[in-house]
Amino acid sequence: MSVATPVVKKFLNNADDVVPESLAGLGAAxxxxxxxxxxxxxxxxxxxxxxGKVALVSGGGSGHEPLHGGFVGIGMLDAACxxxxxxxxxxxxxxxxxxxxxxxxxVVHVVKNYTGDVMNFKLAAEEAADEGIxxxxxxxxxxxxxxxxxxxxxxxxxxxxxxxxxxxxxxxxAGGKAVAxxxxxxxxxxxxxxxxxxxxxxxxxxxxxxxxxxxAAPLPGD
Length: 222
Hints:
The chain is an alpha/beta fold and about 220 residues long. The protein has one domain (about 15-190): Rossmann fold, CATH 3.40.50.10440. The chain has five helices and six strands. The chain has helices at about 20-30, 90-100, 115-130, 160-175, 180-190, and strands spanning about 35, 40-45, 55-60, 80-85, 105-110, 135-140. Strands 1-2-4-3-5-6 form a six-stranded mixed β-sheet, sandwiched between helices. Strand 1 (about 35) and strand 2 (about 40-45) form a beta hairpin. Helix 2 packs across helix 3 and helix 4 packs antiparallel against helix 5 (about 180-190). The longest helix is centred in the middle third of the chain and has 16 residues, at about 115-130. The protein is globular, with a radius of gyration of 19 Å.
């Protein structure tokens, strides 16, 4: 019986360090656009908070890059909260991001319809409201393939999330209001549907061989 050999797709130093190392790399590559808060594990727009502007915050499990950290910048997100790989970020991250980008005009949370994302963003929004920050939440749930699935909480938020972030981000840059932006973004999300598929199975870095450690691999002649 032949045994399939795992295909090496990436180079990792340590599976536990994937997210912080990728964030540090993002910050090093684009210091003119973003700054990285490694303590709270969030990506922030370089000039945040922008006074008088509605701020946009989103987030989700890592492993879907460039979503969401790659969409932080002028005309899109003010902050992104990356969780562990395929794992929702926690409320503390979301609250830290919300407070860091609040410019006094309110904050819009763009939330994909996954149980952890919905629950944790809701908790963060409630905590932010307790601190006097106006928060509007937009739920994206465009994946028509799993509307009646036993394994999801209704339709997942997928491709439309990028459109919501871009359109709401542009409106915020132009001076839109938090409540109006949230309502417009929600209407957009409801009018789009996607069916998603993948060509091969994904895998967690901690559960299967995913590459060669850049630190451990000796160089020729060593």
